[in-house]
Amino acid sequence: MSAPPKERxxxxxxxxxxxAGKFFLEKGFEGASVSQIARHAHASKETFYSRFPNxxxxxxxxxxxxxxxxxxxxxxxxxxxxxxxxxxxxxxxxMLDLVLSEExxxxxxxxxxxxxxxxxxxxxxxxxxxxxTIGSLAKYLEEQVSHGRLRKLNSQIAARQFMDLLAxxxxxxxxxxxxxxxxxxxxxxxxxxxxxxxxxxYGV
Length: 204
Prior knowledge:
The chain has 204 residues and is mainly alpha-helical. It has helices at residues 5-31, 34-40, 45-51, 55-75, 84-99, 102-114, 119-128, 130-146, 155-176, 184-202. GO terms for molecular function: DNA-binding transcription factor activity; transcription cis-regulatory region binding. Residues 33-52 bind DNA. This is AcrR family transcriptional regulator.
């Protein structure tokens, strides 16, 4: 028995976004053409344009889908009842794996090379990726303040401070591509040090 039309349509959209995502990472936004993506996805250009009116909307959908998956996973980590030390450690480990993945580094490089020509794409990535993550962390920190587990703080500033402490140096090194990839133990040590330093400032 075949799947209902709605499920088939959603599955096709997911497939198109998977193929488009690979092309954007391999060829960059400018180098990836809808014709190439459609051909590799075994779909017509009409099928693409019926879902995504232009390449910018396709890129937005690719980023939105990936950040939706990330947000769902974060929702299982940054839960209000989780104590700060445990939640921030789980969050830190998840984020380092994400921002240091080859896929994320490749996407950052693509955007850094094309931001002058396509500044809107960089804005889309920031709003749906880093800004959304900081917002989720800030909300968790506010909840912990309300429960008396953290000192009163500016949640947005504190969330940015945590992210900078956690990932700024490692992301820079990974983006340059001239340093060895950090080991699992190195990442765990970085998370541990970041959480301890952060809680020395904001813990109760």
